[in-house]
UniProtKB/TrEMBL annotation:
Name of the protein in its database record: Ubiquitin-like protease family profile domain-containing protein
InterPro entries membership: Papain-like_cys_pep_sf, Peptidase_C48_C
Family assignment from sequence similarity: Belongs to the peptidase C48 family.
Alphabetized UniProt keyword annotations: Hydrolase, Protease
Signal peptide: none
Biological processes, Gene Ontology terms: proteolysis
GO MF term (any one): cysteine-type peptidase activity
Amino acid sequence: MAAAAAKIKLNLEKWKYVYADDIPKQENGFDCGLFVILYAYAIARNEKFFSLPCDTGRKWIKYLGSCFNYEPQKRLYPRMALKELEVVRNIVSHQSIHLNSAITIQLEAVEEKLLHGSEDSRNESN
């Protein structure tokens, strides 16, 4: 979905799915975005993964963001057709079964935003 929003075509045919069980794992359920950013940063710099407390991590992210010129943007929710939404739901469901994972997603609220998102974005800007 992010690629579609950025108008980028991705060729996934050569991608390989890897499930590594010997990597650092998030220790809580509330700062997953920070964890992913720190992990990607360590990989990109070929450094050992490091963890930061939430408050420190958020300050670090703001500092990194201050190094770039950008203009604030209103958030835009992409709108999806029901058929596309069902495909996404099936992928998540299939992967959670395949990985024997207890992934649960409250899809109703997410689906409502994706089905009617662009309308909500327009209303917020008025």
